[in-house]
């Protein structure tokens, strides 16, 4: 089965991890600090906090932004459930806004229609690898004293308006799952423009531990002392994962170029095929393509999905609208809430896209798909 996504592991990646195993630190060591510094440099120089997954990154980000009961988080339904569920876990009410019908990115006009004084965060998703319209979303957040969050699980290495992903929203979360644009095995990161938010993110992911003597409330202990002011969790990335991530970062540019080449090959071959619609790129964006979301028209998506799988091609669907999940449906979210997102979901099919995909592999995908829709 040709997978729709997979990691690309080199001899240098293996050597980097082996070096950690032969050293003194398996976690909370120098590789983690070096990886966070490298992510920060890539993301505009803001503080980066590494963590165990993209989901952990979202949980950390919402906690660092003070999300809690009584708050509202406005987000897109066209995403993996964690973008919404991590806010809900903290007691916030999730408010879904519809997406642009062409790009499946959060629609600023739809956000403006649901933003209130209770809005704490506007959380967009860089669907398929291109940045959402943060230039339009930021003023909407600023007007009500909210913050913007970029769920950049798909888009690390990309940019918009000449600014890198990580510098486009108040807080940015990243995922380093094996199918993503680079991997740490499992892992993620939170990038924070506000240093105070970055410090809260660090402490939340480090069990809430405060180690700055100037902030201690218990002042008569010894040099071993540390204390907890707010609850936190252990979401720390290991030095093993960080070493792999550092090695992968050195190839992020080549990963991005190859993904763009494959995307262009798909676009050229599929752009004129009846029954298909190729992805639309937003103006001013340099994507780091993570998905190739072709649209299958005429109500044939499931038929084509099953035909591609039967032919040994591991297509996927990204994503079922979040509020369709029973955990949200049981809270009263109903179908029809975001018609553009639902229409996009009904047609979306993710084709294989990863750096080690060969041109012959791509041609096989193209030939199979065009035969099935013909």
Question: What descriptive keywords fit this protein?
Answer:
374 residues; alpha/beta; Aspartate Aminotransferase, domain 1; 7-stranded mixed beta sheet; 3-stranded antiparallel beta sheet
- Please provide the count of β strands: 15
Q: How far apart are the termini?
A: 23 Å
Number of domains: 2
Architecture of the largest domain, according to CATH? Answer: 3-Layer(aba) Sandwich
pLDDT < 50 runs, ≥5 residues: none
Mean model confidence by pLDDT: 98
Rg measurement, Å: 21 Å
SSE class: alpha/beta
Give the helix proportion (percent range). Answer: 25-40%
Secondary-structure element string = HHEHEHEHEHEEEEEHEEHHEEEHHHEH
Strand fraction band? Answer: 5-15%
Q: How many H/I helical runs?
A: 13
Reported for the largest beta sheet, the result is: 7 strands, mixed
Find the CATH superfamily of the largest domain: Type I PLP-dependent aspartate aminotransferase-like (Major domain)
Top-tier CATH class of the largest domain = Alpha Beta
Report the principal-axis shape: globular
Question: How would you characterize this protein structure?
Answer:
It is a single chain. α4 (82-89) links the parallel β2 and β3. The chain has 13 helices and 15 strands. The chain has two domains: 11-249, Aspartate Aminotransferase, domain 2, CATH 3.40.640; 252-373, Alpha-Beta Complex (Aspartate Aminotransferase, domain 1), CATH 3.90.1150.10. The strands form four sheets. A seven-stranded mixed β-sheet has the order 1-9-8-5-4-2-3. Strands 7-6-13 form a three-stranded antiparallel β-sheet, with no helix packed on it. Strands 12-14-15 form a three-stranded antiparallel β-sheet. It is α/β, with parallel strands linked by helices. Helix content is 37%, strand content 15%. α2 (30-42) runs parallel beside α8 and α3 packs across α4.
């Amino acid at each position: 089965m040709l997978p729709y996504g997979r990691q690309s592991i080199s001899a240098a990646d293996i050597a980097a991890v082996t070096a950690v195993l032969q050293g003194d630190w398996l976690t909370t060591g120098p590789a983690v600090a070096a990886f966070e510094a490298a992510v920060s440099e890539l993301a505009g120089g803001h503080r980066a906090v590494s963590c165990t997954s993209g989901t952990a990154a979202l949980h950390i980000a919402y906690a660092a932004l003070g999300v809690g009961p009584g708050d509202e988080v406005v987000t897109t339904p066209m995403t993996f459930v964690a973008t919404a569920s991590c806010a809900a876990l903290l007691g916030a009410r999730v408010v879904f806004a519809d997406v642009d019908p062409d790009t499946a990115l959060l629609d600023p006009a739809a956000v403006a229609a649901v933003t209130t004084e209770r809005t704490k965060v506007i959380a967009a998703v860089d669907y398929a690898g291109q940045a959402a319209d943060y230039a339009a979303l930021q003023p909407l957040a600023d007007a009500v004293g909210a913050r913007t969050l970029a769920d950049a699980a798909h888009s690390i290495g990309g940019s918009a308006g000449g600014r890198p992903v990580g510098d486009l929203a108040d807080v940015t979360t990243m995922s380093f799952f094996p199918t993503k644009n680079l991997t740490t095995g499992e892992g993620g990161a939170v990038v924070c423009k506000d240093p105070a938010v970055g410090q809260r993110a660090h402490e939340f992911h480090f069990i809430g531990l405060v180690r700055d003597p100037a902030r201690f409330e218990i002042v008569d202990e010894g040099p071993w002392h540390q204390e907890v002011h707010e609850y936190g969790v252990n979401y720390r990335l290991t030095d093993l994962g960080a070493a792999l991530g550092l090695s992968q970062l050195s190839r992020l540019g080549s990963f991005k170029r190859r993904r763009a080449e494959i995307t262009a090959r798909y676009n050229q071959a599929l752009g004129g095929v009846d029954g298909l619609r190729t992805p639309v790129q937003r103006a001013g964006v340099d994507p780091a393509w993570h998905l190739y979301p072709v649209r299958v028209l005429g109500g044939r998506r499931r038929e084509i999905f099953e035909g591609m799988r039967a032919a040994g091609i591991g297509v996927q669907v990204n994503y079922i609208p979040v509020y369709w999940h029973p955990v949200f449906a049981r809270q009263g979210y109903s179908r029809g809430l975001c018609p553009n997102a639902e229409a996009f979901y009904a047609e979306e099919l993710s084709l294989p896209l990863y750096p080690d995909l060969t041109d012959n592999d791509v041609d096989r995908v193209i030939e199979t798909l065009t035969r099935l829709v013909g």
